[in-house]
Write the structure tokens for this entry.
Amino acid sequence: MNQEKNISNSIDKVLPLGPFIVDEKHAYNSYLIQGKSLNILVDVMPIQVLDLQKTAIQKTIEINLLTHIIIHGMHMSSINTMIELIDEGFKGIIITNAFFARQIKNAQLPVEILTIESMNYKWVFDKKVIMNFIPMVFLPYPEMFMTYLQPLETLFSSKLYSNYYEDSKNITLDYLKQSIFDYHKDNMPTTEFVRIPLRVIDKFEISHIYPLMGHIIPENDIDQITDYLLKMDFYNTYVVYKFNEAHEKEINFIEVINHMILKLEQYIPRIEILNTLIGTPFSLDSNTLQLKKSTLSGYKLWHGFFEHIYIKKGISWLSILEPMVNRYAEHHSIELPNIFQSQILGLTETQKKLELEKADLEIKLKELKDQADQARDEILKCPITHLYYTEVLKRMLSHDMTESKSDHVALGLALVQLDNLNEINRKYGKETGDEAIRNLAYQIAQIKKDESLIFKQNGPGIYIYLPETSITELQACSLELRNSIMKSDVFLEDTSVSIAIVTQDEIIKDQPVEDQIKDLFSLLERRMMLAKTQGKASIIDQTFQLPQMDEGSILLVDEDEVSRNMLYRIFNRIHFRVMLATSVKEAIEIVNKSQIDVIISEINLSKIDGFTLKQMLNETKAYKEIPFIMVSHNKTLDNIKRGNTLDVDLILEKPIVPDELIGHVKRFKDRKTML
């Protein structure tokens, strides 16, 4: 790390900052690590408590003396927070992961960034590791991580060990356990998301734990709290109850059984669970191992699942599930499965013990996991062509596009589909159609360049991936492939293919990699749709004009450039025409000139606010009918009352949830169209 010349690796102390209370349950923590030449701030706060954090820092040092900021997980106001800290004089280095680094770079902040990936997940001074960076899998933020400070045996645990904050509460061990349980259950899908990082940090000597949220973990309670976290059990992905078409509450047996499968997965390899339920009324998704549907329903589904488990696997699997089944019976009044009540299970305690010992789950767990790893590739491959599916291609693209250091090298994709596959299926049957796809994969493998890879589409086509290419090279490869297929004699009858091609040069690179990948596949799919209308053996590239997709027009009124640009990208990607204004004057000029379907306006604008904009629009009948959504960090009762007086359709509080806003916009736009 040549960026840290002349910096000593000596660490003196960790100073907790905060807690910074956001509301009655939530309080953020930040920490200052100090050494001879190091002043490291751990995590930046949301904008509403940033002033409190700055005051806490300045009680010890000036902000311009901070050498580093470690960011474990961003929130909606992180960019604005960093802008304020830079304005206050911060000139140091940001340490975060590649995902968050891209967000900061996209905002074009004048600050140096190091990623934990580029540091090989550790910070080394004078050949000594002073910090380890530990990736996690937590929601709601992707790719979060923890930091372990070796000299002081200190873990900055981010979301792990976080809890709800209560200022006046006497913080007993029992209260802290309950608060930790409630926080993790509210923020994570299952306890498996907790256990994975706990297994990783088990190898470290930990004397201090500093979480992002809530109360700091007392040193004397670390072992007990850790043991409690390991034993926690919850499952939030679905609810126990649902409402049927008659709006009557009924038990959601599908998802209760999914909880049972998740429990089995802790001890039994995924492939063994999948094989056990193949050919039964219980249809599992091969990738997620989730029960999606069944020919049984209600209590027939409930009883039948455990009867089949017993027939195939005997008492051992039922013994794993028995505590959970009893819990559902106690807390949700779900009837015990028949097999648990029958005479068959009237085994003696000695017989149960022998069955459990025979299973020897703890000893076999590692061996079975190894078998599951070997079977993983088979689940990710198409059984017809033995090619990996699209999901693997997307992972590879994400890696290659993230690691690429050059703007002069472009990757390329081609989507190839048989023109007469439907005719073959209709005339000769699906098996012959599958054989045609297999032959197509074979032909492509014979012709493709050595550096290119092929993948099976989650549909009838095959992708060709060229890590480094140009549009000219991609066109030449596609032409060669098309002509070769037309001359081939491996197909049952004369066959042709249509090909859609795209290169990375055609998409906007100044956006997250995930969005770039979406744009690549969207272009491919739209070009393949055009190819089907052009006739057989078509090759569609960027020279063809795609039909315009127009979902409607949106006017965004906001002075905050980061917020404005984020919403612009979101709606532009789903084919809305987006017009931007930074003031009421600009907004009125746009409305007078253009057809607008929905207006989204910030309340707090300079000179004239968003309410005045709505009041001005209400003076014209046509403009009054335009759906009007207001957004603000201050969704107060007074603002709601004022909005209702002006017929504002909706007021949303920042940070905005994109999917929620998109849903409202589409509904308001459809409503306006019907009017």
Q: What stands out?
A: Confidence is low (pLDDT under 50) at residues 1-9.
